[in-house]
Amino acid sequence: MRQRQFLSKHSDGFHKVAYAEWGDPLNKNTIVCAHGLTLNGRYFDWFAKAAEDHYRIICPDSIGRGKSDWIDPSLYWFDQYVADNATLLSHIGLESEINWVGTSMGGLIGIHLATHKNTPLKRLVLNDVGPFIASAAITAIGEYIGKDERYKTIAEVEEQLRKLYPKFGNLTNEQWRHLARIGSQLTEEGDLRLAYDPRVREYFRRGGDYSIWDLWEKIDIPILILRGGESAILTQETLEEMVERNPNARSHVFAGIGHAPPLMTGDQIDVILDFLNAS
Length: 279
What we know:
Blueprint: E1 2-10, E2 13-22, E3 29-34, H1 45-51, E4 56-60, H2 78-92, E5 97-103, H3 105-114, E6 121-127, E7 132-133, H4 135-144, H5 154-164, H6 173-182, E8 184-186, E9 192-194, E10 210-211, H7 213-216, E11 223-228, H8 236-245, E12 249-254, H9 266-278
Parallel strand pairs: 3-4, 3-5, 5-6, 6-11, 11-12
Antiparallel strand pairs: 1-2, 2-4, 7-10, 8-9
Helix pairs in contact: 2-3, 5-6
């Protein structure tokens, strides 16, 4: 794994976007892994290790997360996320064949990018997210993120993550500890905090449904939709409508898991790699 970065632009200047890179950097067969709302690119370490023999893997930290810069919180929304990832795709190189694997927020970024003219995306994997999220689910997200709590040890961070993500499924103790390590950072006072800007919550406190069905129907590449069978973010009703409204889409449901499948177990990883290899 190599840690890299590039500069992207926002309305008032430039900012750093960090990313982890796995596999042969000359391999044109590339997977970009885009994380969820409060996580970062290292969330995909298990997936990247499983795929790096056959793919170049790029795992960016969205602005305000991980090792990327924090900026004006009014910019923590999809216009900026899409612009940053368009810059990333240019940075990767035009000759690369891009497969996009996006969890939650990362999947929505992928939907936006896939509808752009001359998109370099060849395949799209959406992990527990779709073009419609009900207001109640958005409100619930706004209530649990951004509390900016402090922790003394990695063990305390791990305990908090287990509470925040009780529906991640049967992760090992090693995997939970890994998520705690990559999902936290030191403060100036020497405490630990979760590794994201708590101000990312601001858009989620405005209320209302989130709907981009108009974009969904424009996507013209193979799509795999993954759903946690107990997810409140991607309901079964929305999943069925997604498949009905875009003939390029197929789906797979993981029983006993909520939002979102962590893509750290062999069965979840294999479903994605089988799709990428076959489509």
